[in-house]
Amino acid sequence: MPAKGKHRRQKSTLITRGLVAAGTGGAVVALPLIGATGAHAAEQAAPAAVSGTVAAAAQVQAQVQAAPAAKAAAPTTYSVVAGDYLSKIAADHDVAGGWKQLYADNRQVVGENPSLILPGMKLTLGAKNPARAAAPKPAAKAAAPKAAVKAAPKAKAEVKAEAEAEATEQTRASRSAERAAAPAAAAPAATGWVAPVSGGVSTPYRASGSMWSSGYHTGADFIASSGTTVRAVGAGTVVSAGWSGAYGNEVVIKHADGNYSQYAHLSSLAVSAGQSVSGGQQIGLSGSTGNSTGPHLHFEIRTSPSYGADIDPLAYLRQHGVSI
Question: Domain 201-319, CATH 1.20.1260.10 — does that match?
Answer without folding.
Answer: no
